[in-house]
Amino acid sequence: MRALYLCVLFLPAVVAQTPDFYLHDGDTVVFYGDSITNQRLYTAFTEAFVLTRFPELHIRFVHSGFSGDRVSGGAGGSIDERLDHDVFPYRPTVVTVMLGMNDGEYQPYDAGIFRKYAAGYRHIIEKLKTGLPTARITLLEPSAYDDVTRPPAFAEGYNSVLKRYGEFVRGLAKSEQLNVADLNAPVVALLRAANSSAPEQAQQLIPDRVHPGAAVHMIMAEALLKAWHAPSTVTSVEIDAAAGAVEQARNTTVDAVDVSNGIAWTQLDKSLPMPTDLPDETMDLALRCSDFFDALNQERLKIAGLAEGKYRLLIDDQEIKQFDAADLARGINLATMATPMSKQAQLVLDLTHRHNHLHFARWRMVEDALKDYTLTKKQTVLDGLDALEAEVVALQQSAAIPKPHHYRLERLAPAQ
Predict the structure, then answer these.
(1) What CATH number does the domain containing 152 carry?
(2) pTM of the prediction?
């Protein structure tokens, strides 16, 4: 399904399944930040992961990034205006904050500029804690400026400034007892691994050195989800083909096992895999050069007790791939393959993008763009866009509910 690149994983492999996922049923999450949040990519990937991994949860996601923002605010208003208009009205129970890319002013570290950043960031936290006293806050260390695939513009490079800002954010989170996620180091590690493997393509991961492409946003979403204790397991199934017995069925139900002609069974999962087969030429590179599948997307299938030979796996009569018996005995990860489950998950991601585009159109292209004009139809349009987005969200949540699938493993005749 995916091209193979020789990249070095930059983090240890498996993050264990945990019962203490950060988000809860009924939460409202507001993602706050600058243009990188305004891209609505790491945020949308995070949202899609939550829906596909926890389809029983009902969580609202609001994306409130504004291009050019700093800790003082920006084109959308001062920081107090931004929070009053783009955070507090949603009454979030969870808020993420990522600021810093613009605050360093794209120059070597300057103590005076940093003091403005630190004071502004402290003001944001004070205002959030005052206005939302029960909300859980996750601070995101600034994402990376690409000083890896191209020479830095000055000694040590701009990302060294962002790392210092990130150290401040981490310290602030500790002192204020807030959650924190590092969205810089994993991206730098990805850039280094990709640059060693495919240097020309690696430059497309962050094309302008500031705004990441979709592939990097996926790795940023991974970093946030790890900080939220996201589980690695989609499902895990182990079957003894010789005995026709299910040895393990984790986060799924397996029944109707039939060994009369090869081996077949029906499976109803509790989760879908995270969709990753995206129309982005660098996505394969990023996934191969990271631990994304091991850390967040394990859809394991292990079949022991097979006679030696080659087998083909079909799901709902669709051939997925051919495997040696030894591969199946070791276990395969279905999340890396095109399956009916991944196709369903892709629909969830598509609807995630669509409802966020609707929110953006309502907020930025109608409400914000026309705020200085008295128009009789404006509220009608805003109400209509709200209703339309709610309808798309209902479709999105429905699309995330897993469906039963019929699996069949057939032994192939030896090549003549």
Answers:
(1) 3.40.50.1110
(2) 0.94
